[in-house]
DNA sequence: CGCTTTCTTGACATGCATCAAGTCGGGTGG
DNA sequence: CCACCCGACTTGATGCATGTCAAGAAAGCG
């Protein structure tokens, strides 16, 4: 949960009590999953909200003929969908990439937050809005960018999100995605993903080997991906704001 | 505003007071825009939330070299982004397609709702979650579907959303989008959009002429688009639920 | 009624998919 | 500790869906 709080505090300063609440929620009901396993399946009734404590997962949708699209990656500290249980059934599945530890957040937890912890509510809205922005950017990515740009863009996004959660060391990070995963996320074929990665390597933009990615020059990779980080809303505004002044006005 | 309340009540039964609140908010500060004009631009500080009272608009993003992606269409009754003002700057623009009337919803309005109208809060979360689901489906659409499937899918979605808001008559509806708009939304070229539409016409799946679309056989169009309406979450659950029982438990 | 935007059609180009056949690497059991 | 095996990666040859370019026809609009 460290990464969740770390992430949310980029935006809102949380009180000690808020910390306690979040800590409790993220240690109470924890489940562990192996790699390449489904956590929730399309069509099921959503019950709890899932908080990824460790490991990587993804959200994906599938057509009857097997075509599969990864529509989001979940990294440690990510919340799958605040308040999903409002909906009657899942319109997508969530599956693990690596081993994953998940905390199940109950409806009651969100009630409690709504009733008495406005800063957390604000932080959850922020999380929701940023996720929406990321999804829009993926739409843009698939609709307008070339294979090379698309791949570079995706790698930039993952890199920055990992860094925000403190999961990079120097210029490298763990990178458990296979070329097949990247294909499903970018809408490219596996073969073309392979060739695109080679192109990025040849240009010195990435070093990708085993399950480790290094980005020797982020600016150049961002250029290659026509990457504008504004949509991640990492502006750290909350750092300067007194939480009370936000929470009294920002939430619905 | 009729269409907003109509839409939200598919999900939650609102109280008379809730109606009054929403009515007031959507008549207080109304602005009118001509067709093909920007309402908000990327980079601006979001101030109010926009509720589309009448007309069509879209959300779009643009690359520096001019490539443009429409990432969402707004129809009457749609709210652009609940609580956007939490974010420091817009990561996309909103532009009109037709003439549009917009109600500006203030931060204070959302505070008021948050403080005393839990059913509306629930309804807003529902709206937010459904919009997120739509955005995911667009990602899927661009990543996996062929031109023909993609176009059929988009038309199905628009059709169902219009129908939900009571904006279809029989098997036809107003359809102000140009082939250029469709191209920007589907990630196809204008020329290919033209050919794809002709194919749909030749198959008898649509009648599209002037600014009117007719769908003689929705089921067949849905088949062609591999369209599964689950992501629109139109299950009307709220109709049966007593609002109180939802609002006491569903919101954060 | 002329001007501009939108639509349509044809010819040609290309980015990426598909098919097919390896090679590498890392986990596992003998 | 080796040998095998299976998933992940790589490479080449070929095909096709969709893009691009160009020009004209229709349709809206002042």
UniProtKB/TrEMBL annotation, chains A, B:
The lineage of its organism: Bacteria, Pseudomonadati, Pseudomonadota, Alphaproteobacteria, Hyphomicrobiales. SMART domains: cNMP (SM00100), HTH_CRP (SM00419). Pfam families: cNMP_binding, HTH_Crp_2. Residues 145-219 form the HTH crp-type domain. The keyword Cell cycle does not apply. This is Crp/Fnr family transcriptional regulator. Keywords: DNA-binding, Transcription, Transcription regulation. PROSITE patterns: HTH_CRP_2. InterPro entries: cNMP-bd_dom, cNMP-bd_dom_sf, HTH_CRP, RmlC-like_jellyroll, WH-like_DNA-bd_sf, WH_DNA-bd_sf.
